[in-house]
Design brief:
Layout: H1 3-11, H2 18-29, H3 35-48, H4 52-63, E1 79-83, H5 91-100, E2 106-110, H6 120-125, H7 136-146, E3 148-152, H8 159-171, H9 177-190, E4 195-202, H10 211-227, E5 231-238, E6 246-247, H11 249-260, H12 266-282, H13 288-300, H14 303-314, H15 320-323, E7 333-338, E8 343-348, H16 350-359, E9 376-379, E10 386-387, E11 392-398, H17 405-414, E12 415-418, E13 428-432
Parallel strand pairs: 1-4, 2-3, 4-5
Antiparallel strand pairs: 5-13, 6-9, 7-11, 8-10, 8-12, 9-11
Helix pairs in contact: 1-3, 2-4, 4-9, 4-10, 5-11, 5-12, 5-14, 9-10, 12-13, 16-17
The structure holds uracil.
Length: 433
């Protein structure tokens, strides 16, 4: 088989066979196809799309490219959760403990941030001492003992995705529903959970900007999950502004702690409840209405936060950062972004907001870059707020960057003020199950 023929076929809008897709993934994983040829195929896929059959084949081939975790030693239904990537999205830090409090074993595999979106592992590792690298036996033991472990992707889990994702990131080929579905689902299938809840982000900070595109992605993931024996429920959530008020690694841990105490911002609280209800429902823990009440209780009676502390300490982290969370806030340098005129906060280009946080050191431009755990943004206001000229919209902070000029300029471009109050959409836009 010649790889060039696959490129030409897809460029012409034709369907690749199962054998061709298997060849692509096996040969690329074995370093037998150069990145420039794979980039060309990825670009052709972005323009021509893939049928559901091709997407399913790609997913399964990628899932088979490495280890398949066997979690059968953990009793109960193992439920995982994954987001398609957003800004200020600290939901996994909150939902994991909430659901684990109901006795659901949560064996979670998470990623690092890339581009403008943040990653759960970077947030967790901003807690001093915490590690997210596990031997499989330790991971299983922790899920059995604590009901909750959050681990990073190992080199052996869906390695084809690891290579492809890095290549997509630098070749402008992330935004393809087929490639996103295959990337996420291949990891979830390989990670061994029985059921998964997907948070499909939709809006200016997400890879899928329109509701139609997000619905399509959710449906594709649902269908492929079924084919692979993985039960999938998807919620589509609004990503037209950062989730909550804080963007940046330690800042997001702080906001997660607040939310775990029942004092989180409304949008974050609501989304976490909806996702946690869905996970507990999939774990056969009862009716959605009853679960919602039980999960609210876990936030208010201290159990959810205690579970988070237990997990963090089990993974070597310093739990005092969660019991005295003010330690998570300081940074060496700060600046304020002020309303340039009076009016309503009408819209945000949330991708630019994520990039502004990255400019302060909260994200990496390349995989090998380090992270400033203290860097990020604290928003005083959400969309729809009525502001006077000079009111602070957000505070910027960093310990690694003293020149706030580029990030302030980015925020200026990202934020639209106007005379009319904007029409606001709810946090949950749709569900697919
Ligand atoms: N998250 C992933 O793991 N892969 C994608 O392609 C997009 C978001």
């Amino acid at each position: 088989m010649r790889f060039l023929d696959l490129i030409l076929k897809k460029k012409a809008g034709q369907e690749l066979t199962t054998a061709e897709i298997n060849y692509f993934i096996q040969a690329y994983s074995a370093d037998a196809i150069p990145d420039y040829q794979v980039s060309a195929l990825l670009m052709a896929i972005c323009f021509q799309g893939m049928t559901d059959r091709e997407t399913a084949d790609l997913t399964l081939a990628m899932a088979r490219s490495g280890d398949h975790l066997d979690l059968s030693a953990i009793p109960g239904i193992k439920v995982d959760k994954h987001s398609t990537g957003g800004v200020g999205d600290k939901t996994s830090l909150i939902i994991g403990p909430m659901v684990a409090c109901l006795g659901v074993p949560v064996a979670k595999m998470s990623g690092r941030g890339l581009g403008h979106t943040g990653g759960t592992i970077d947030k967790l590792e901003s807690i001093p001492g915490l590690t997210s690298s596990f031997a499989l036996t330790d991971f299983i033991r922790q899920v059995k003992d604590v009901h909750l472990a959050i681990a990073g992707q190992t080199a052996h889990l869906a390695p084809a995705d690891k290579k492809l994702y890095a290549l997509r990131d630098v070749t402008g080929t992330v935004q393809s529903p087929a490639l996103i579905a295959a990337s996420i689902l291949s990891k979830k299938i390989a990670a061994g959970a029985d059921k998964v809840v997907f948070d499909v982000k939709c809006g200016s900070g997400a890879f899928m900007e329109t509701l139609e595109d997000a619905q399509h992605l959710g449906r594709v993931m649902y269908a492929i999950g079924q084919e692979a024996g993985l039960v999938v429920h998807a919620l589509i959530s609004n990503m037209n502004q950062p989730l909550g008020h804080m963007v940046g690694n330690r800042l997001e841990v702080y906001e997660a702690v607040q939310t775990l105490q029942g004092q989180g911002p409304e949008d974050l609280h609501e989304l976490c409840l909806a996702l946690a209800v869905e996970m507990a429902f999939l774990a056969d823990k009862g009716r959605r209405e009853d679960l919602r009440a039980q999960l609210e209780d876990k936030l208010h009676n201290g159990q959810a936060l205690a579970k988070f502390v237990e997990m963090v300490e089990a993974q070597g982290g310093d739990g005092s950062y969660l019991t005295q969370p003010d330690q998570l806030l300081p940074a060496s340098y700060t600046a304020d972004f002020l309303a340039p005129e009076a009016g309503y906060l009408q819209a945000m280009n949330c991708q630019l907001v994520g990039e502004a946080s990255g400019l302060l050191g909260a994200g990496r431009a390349r995989l090998e870059d380090g992270i400033d755990p203290t860097a990020g943004l604290i928003f005083d206001h959400k969309l729809g707020a009525k502001l006077a000229k000079g009111d602070r919209i957000c505070r910027l902070q960093s310990s690694s960057v003293q020149d706030f000029g580029p990030a302030l300029a980015q925020l200026e471009t990202a934020i639209t003020m106007g005379d009319q109050a904007p029409k606001l959409s709810p946090i949950i836009l749709d569900h697919i199950y």
